[in-house]
């Protein structure tokens, strides 16, 4: 990885620009995205309305009453000048206890069968590495994380479910995620966590932020219940 | 919308009215007697939280909400009610001044027709009712000082999909028995006689022109598609809601298929593999990965929010500078 970047600025709307740093998904990009996030927040200050970092880009929504697009471009270029990647410690670390079970994770057995291993082996592999939160979206607090090991990669369900329970832990291609609220969804579900990803009564409303690191930990049904987990099987919802 | 500064102003003003003018145990103003398909509390939207996956929300036709508020001397982005399609009936618990703007939903006061745009007094016990669309889709109701309720992340905007905002704080639409509170007992100052300028455009009809700020990804589309996009009529599809509006018309071809997901601005005109554009509006998901022609200007988004299914529209390319000039001119009308 080179130690300097030349970000591309793209017009995407009257009051929005995309800062494009990379072209493909790679965990090694996140320190750069985080550094750009900090630099842009600082550089635009009060003129920033929203900043949405994602895998390879940041969407800058600026205050059109304060800045023309030309002025916004200039401020963004200044802010990103001499950008250095953030330290890997910039994101926070989370350990997420998950009850992996066929009743709340119907695809667990199916993926195990495809790989010719037992479900425990799938759990071991899913919990064997730290994942990076690339971007939040889909629903409040929902983080797209990766990368899961290549052998586990599984396409989305052909027909998405109408309802996926909050806390469901799923995989799609080489990414993994937790459903932050009950919603429709097409990811392959392996288990469920009792941890709330989005809680309006908590100081940190969203547990995850882009750039955070997440490790899953297998827990028993009893521990899951003790943590306040809902054991209603997924398909009954 | 980019009226974040005024949003903050409103938030502050509301907070102050709680301390400086300790109102009598806020009397209810209006009670919901009957609901229609969808009546939602909306303001300018929720800002500063899109990196957490929380969408913008807010009035689709922010211009009509702005005019309704202006009629009562409110800040243009004070919270009001977005009434889609009609069906809503509200009874006054006390006499108060109200204003409506936007779609003509056949509003009546105790059965007597009201103008679709204007302020009026609703006496205690009288019923304000909305029938069904005659022009446009969404009417906006403003209350003196704006509707008062507990904001979440700086906004009252109702987003059903996210279970956020609204009177119940859970993204719910208005329900029978709900009470709407006004932040002030009466309109501020001498604003009672305000009338809308006669020069305002009518609700959009066929061949409405919507301005589109062309984006960098436009280079991914082939020339014939771009020619068609800006020269052929588009039809507003029935698959339309607060998240997005689908258009049907010529098939647009794009060299890049799926892209890495990235942040999506208001009004983004994304083109999925079937070549039929979807215009992403206030309740859109915050990131997505389809190629885009660009984004409708905020004024065009407001117009689109009033286009019934079947309406034909045309897309007209503009620069960010042109869109900004018209946007600032609109804001200046309310100062």
Jot down its keywords:
heterodimer, A: 237 residues, alpha+beta, Gyrase A, domain 2, Cyclophilin, seven-stranded mixed β-barrel, four-stranded antiparallel β-sheet, 21% helix, elongated, B: 335 residues, 2 domains, seven-stranded antiparallel β-sheet, globular, disordered N terminus
Description:
- The complex is a heterodimer of chains A (237) and B (335).
- With 237 residues, chain A is of the alpha+beta class.
- Chain A has two domains: 8-89, Gyrase A, domain 2 (2-Layer Sandwich), CATH 3.30.1360.40; 91-236, Cyclophilin.
- Chain A is 21% helix and 29% strand.
- Chain A is built from five helices and 13 strands.
- In chain A, the strands form three sheets. A seven-stranded mixed beta barrel of chain A has the order 5-12-9-10-7-6-13.
- In chain A, helix 1 (30-44) crosses helix 2 (69-80) and helix 3 (107-115) packs across helix 4.
- Chain A is elongated.
- The mean pLDDT of chain A is 94.
- Helices cover 16% and strands 28% of the residues of chain B.
- A seven-stranded antiparallel beta sheet of chain B has the order 7-6-9-4-1-12-11, with no helix packed on it. A seven-stranded mixed β-barrel of chain B has the order 13-20-17-18-15-14-21. Chain B has a five-stranded antiparallel beta sheet with strand order 2-3-10-5-8.
- The radius of gyration of chain B is 20 Å and the shape is globular.
- The interface between A and B is large, with 48 and 50 residues.
What is the topological layout?
The complex is a heterodimer of chains A (237) and B (335).
Chain A: E1 8-13, E2 16-20, H1 30-44, E3 48-53, E4 57-62, H2 69-80, E5 93-100, H3 107-115, H4 119-126, E6 131-136, E7 143-146, E8 161-164, E9 168-172, E10 175-178, E11 183-185, E12 188-192, E13 213-218, H5 221-226
Parallel strand pairs in A: 5-13
Antiparallel strand pairs in A: 1-2, 2-4, 3-4, 5-12, 6-7, 6-13, 7-10, 8-11, 9-10, 9-12
Helix pairs in contact in A: 1-2, 3-4
Chain B: H1 4-19, E1 30-34, E2 38-42, H2 62-71, E3 80-84, E4 89-92, E5 96-104, E6 108-109, E7 112-113, E8 118-122, E9 127-129, E10 135-142, E11 147-148, E12 179-182, E13 208-214, H3 223-231, E14 234-240, E15 244-248, E16 262-263, E17 268-270, E18 278-280, E19 287-288, E20 292-296, H4 298-304, E21 312-318, H5 320-332
Parallel strand pairs in B: 13-21
Antiparallel strand pairs in B: 1-4, 1-12, 2-3, 3-10, 4-9, 5-8, 5-10, 6-7, 6-9, 11-12, 13-20, 14-15, 14-21, 15-18, 16-19, 17-18, 17-20
């Amino acid at each position: 990885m080179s130690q300097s970047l030349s970000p591309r600025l793209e017009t995407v709307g009257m009051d929005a620009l995309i800062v494009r740093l990379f072209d493909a998904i790679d965990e090694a990009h996140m320190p750069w995205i985080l550094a750009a996030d900090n630099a842009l927040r600082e550089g635009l200050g009060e003129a920033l309305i929203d900043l949405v970092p994602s895998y390879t880009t940041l969407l800058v929504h600026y205050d059109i009453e304060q800045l023309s697009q030309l002025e916004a471009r200039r401020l963004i270029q200044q802010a990103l000048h001499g950008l250095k990647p953030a330290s890997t410690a910039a994101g926070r670390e989370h350990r997420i206890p998950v009850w992996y079970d066929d009743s709340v994770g119907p695809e667990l057995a199916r993926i195990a069968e495809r790989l010719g291993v037992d479900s425990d082996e799938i759990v071991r592999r899913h919990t064997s590495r730290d994942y990076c939160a690339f971007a939040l979206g889909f629903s409040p607090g929902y983080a797209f994380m990766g990368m899961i090991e290549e052998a586990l990669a599984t396409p989305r369900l052909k027909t998405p479910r109408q309802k996926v329970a909050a806390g469901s832990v799923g995989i799609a291609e080489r990414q993994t995620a937790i459903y932050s609220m009950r919603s429709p969804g097409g990811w392959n579900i392996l288990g469920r966590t009792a941890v709330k990803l989005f809680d309006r009564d908590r100081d940190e409303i969203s547990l995850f932020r882009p750039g955070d690191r997440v490790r899953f930990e297998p827990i028993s049904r009893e521990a899951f219940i003790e943590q306040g987990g809902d054991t209603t099987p997924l398909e009954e919802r | 919308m980019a009226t974040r500064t005024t949003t903050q102003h409103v938030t502050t003003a509301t907070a102050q009215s709680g301390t400086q003018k300790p109102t009598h145990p806020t009397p209810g103003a209006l009670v919901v007697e009957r609901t229609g398909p969808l009546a939602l509390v909306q303001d300018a939207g929720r800002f500063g939280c899109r990196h957490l996956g929380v969408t913008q929300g807010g009035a689709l036709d922010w211009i009509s909400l702005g005019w309704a508020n202006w009629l009562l001397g409110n800040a243009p982005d004070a919270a009001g009610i977005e009434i889609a399609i009609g069906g809503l009936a509200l009874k006054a618990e006390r006499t108060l001044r109200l204003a409506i703007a936007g779609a003509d939903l056949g509003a009546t006061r105790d059965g007597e027709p009201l103008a679709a745009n204007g302020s009026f007094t609703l006496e205690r016990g009288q019923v304000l009712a909305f029938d069904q669309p005659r022009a446009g889709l969404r009417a906006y109701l403003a209350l003196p000082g704006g509707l008062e309720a507990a904001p979440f992340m700086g906004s009252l905007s109702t987003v059903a999909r996210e279970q956020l905002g609204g009177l119940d704080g859970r993204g719910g639409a208005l329900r029978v028995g709900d009470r709407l509170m006004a932040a002030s007992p009466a309109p501020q100052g001498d604003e009672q006689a305000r009338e809308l300028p006669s020069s305002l455009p009518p609700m959009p009809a066929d061949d409405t022109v919507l301005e589109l700020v062309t984006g960098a990804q436009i280079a991914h589309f082939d020339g014939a598609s771009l020619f068609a996009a800006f020269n052929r009529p588009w039809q507003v599809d029935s698959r339309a809601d607060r998240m997005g509006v689908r258009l049907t018309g010529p098939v647009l071809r794009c060299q890049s298929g799926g892209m890495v997901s990235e942040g999506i601005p208001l009004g983004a005109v994304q083109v999925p593999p079937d070549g039929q554009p979807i215009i992403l509006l206030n309740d859109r998901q915050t990131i997505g990965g389809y190629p885009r022609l660009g984004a409708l200007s905020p004024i065009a988004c407001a117009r689109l929010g009033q286009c019934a299914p079947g309406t034909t529209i045309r897309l007209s390319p503009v620069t960010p500078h042109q869109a900004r000039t018209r946007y600032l001119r609109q804001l200046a009308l309310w100062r």
